[in-house]
Amino acid sequence: MMRNRSLCLSLALLLVLQVLLTGCWDNVELNRRAIISGIAIDRGDTEAEKYKLSFQVIVAEEISGEKSRGISPVALYTGVGRTMFEALADASRQTARFLSLGHVRVLVISEKFAREGIKDILDVLERESDTRLNSEIFISKGQPARVLMSTMTVFSKIPANDLVEKLETTSKQFGYNFRMAVDDVIRGIQIRGGGPIINGVYTSGDREQAGSNDSLKNIEPRTILRVSGLAAFKDDKLKGWLTGDAAVGTVLLHNNLREYPSLLKDKEGGYISFNIYQSQVTLKVQSADPEHPVITVKITQQAALKESPNTLDLTSPRVLDELSDQLTEETVKQIKAAVSAARGFKSDYLGFGKAFQRKNPRGWKKIKDHWEEVFTTCGIRFEADVVIRHTDMRGNSFQIN
């Protein structure tokens, strides 16, 4: 009898404990949260205000359409502090709701801060449980990061969403920019002798009314958010910007370029346009002498002819072979430009060191501490092949007699 009574008492105690443990002691009701869609981080002028954090907060009533007051769909709050946490606390004093970091889609860091180093910023983002490491990260090019968070856009009520969608569009079709998340940058910083590459972003046009809905009432938007350029890092510090051939070649080496246009100049003074729609780059390392390795860059691509305003006979295999050879030379030129830029920055963000380490781990241990010097002098060879698969919906261009 006593045994049954003890068993019942134990079961009752367990049930009571379960009820107590199921409570959410730190829960905040949804209507008490301010959902942050984007964060801009600027460098203050003093150490007391080192961090200037601007939070793009979604005004839910204006997005849903219910109880709309006709105001801006987002609001911008800025806090300052000696640390990011202090700046967040400062910004919270300006809002009537709890700032929620769980839905941040975009993080923009100013170029000034990036040149000083972003390691501490990333440490906070990785440490904070509410933040998302898959948020897209950008470097504001020549402008305060806050400017990017206060620009109204045509295709999305939320500027942060517009920036993400622009990056998705250009990465799938016509640009060398590709999606770069916070955790990608964290991994890039830890590459010995190298660093990450991060998308650049800036605004063009009239800044005076960029934060007003009135700027969108014109057929031609007065201010436009533009994704352009790649920020090249050494460790956690910005070293310079990549554009043109150097940017294209860099992304080719990362195998992150899906489609992009390539132009050739013809004998008649015009241009022939191609769409490179498939590209694969592999690295082969010969490292019998670890101090003097030779890296072979092998590139295979497929292209489609998109524009040919000339009299070329595009039904001739010989003509297409000649164009393929020219495209091959153009691709090699882009890769060479990327390697030259990386060597100039003394940063192996191209991944040559990782390829060496995979091929020869023992040799890597001998040179990893001075890989920067080895990287700038190692031999590089190129094996490229570009094939023109088709000329789209027609063969030769039509001519006017």
Automatic annotation (TrEMBL):
UniProt keyword Plastid, yes or no: no
Subcellular location: Membrane
Main location: membrane
Keyword annotations from UniProtKB, A to Z: Germination, Lipoprotein, Membrane, Palmitate, Signal
Membrane association type: Lipid-anchor
Keyword Oxidoreductase carried by entry: no
Residue ranges occupied by any Spore germination GerAC-like C-terminal domain in the UniProt entry: 228-391
Limits of the Spore germination protein N-terminal domain: 26-198
UniProt family annotation: Belongs to the GerABKC lipoprotein family.
Protein name as catalogued: Ger(X)C family spore germination protein
